[in-house]
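Minimal example, chain plus manganese (II) ion.
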Amino acid sequence: MKLCRFDNSRLGLVSADGDAVADITTIIADLPVVAWPRSPVDPLLAQLPQLHAAIEALGRSASWIPIERVALRSPITSPSKLIAAPVNYRAHIDEANADKGINFGKTIKSIEEYGLFLKASSSIVGPADGVHLPPLDRRVDHEVELVAIIGKEGYRIPRERALEHVGAYAIGLDMTVRGPEDRSWRKSFETFAVIGPWLVTADEIPDPGKLDMRLTVNGEVRQSANTGALIFDVPRLVEYASATYRLYPGDVIMTGTPEGVGPVAGGDVLECYIERIGTMRVPIHGA
Ligand code: MN
């Protein structure tokens, strides 16, 4: 099942081919409402398994809108955490070490030595919103990544149970200012976490470790890889992240980018594809 958020926070069921959307916003009325204090749990992600049948039933009687007529927002809006994996593909470590514009004179090691990092949740946008470059004279790179979205709360989750805690997948863009500063600053600019084009429930992706992925800039292929090359695969990332953080439904894990990262400029259009999820088109807006 594919679910999107579109236009002015409508909830959509996306057709299997990704060509059409049905407005199923009425299902939101079934979610629990907590006025205060705000919960760290995304109520839609927490309830997804229970809502699955009702959503599919709504889809059968809904009228379908061509997908290009709606503005796709991020399906996740304010997770308690936006967790991200640094240097999680061998070939990306190699390219980072070969490019001073990425490494700034430091030797780039691997995820075992860096641990994970957090991006500001406020940087999340959807593909229709696009990336807005900050007014800095600095290189800003694209990083396409498989995104795992937590569906079930957990802490210290063992690897064997890790995938039970993933509720959905999406495509992510971890936009990055290159420079010597801390990752949490360079990767948290407004609009620097694009998530979309929809979420795909985990039952449709039993093995997140063999998905082709690709990113093009203005039609030219820049990144092309398979998640089979991840150093820490999705189960290991869930295990590793949950050894530190309690994971809540709606929490996002950006799994790391493969090789081929490079700078973007205002006016560019990125197309990000991941097998079994779909394609999202993301405009880059200049400063
Ligand atoms: Mn990244």
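Helices lie at 43-61, 90-98, 100-103, 111-114, 183-186, 234-242. The first strand starts at residue 2 and ends at 6.
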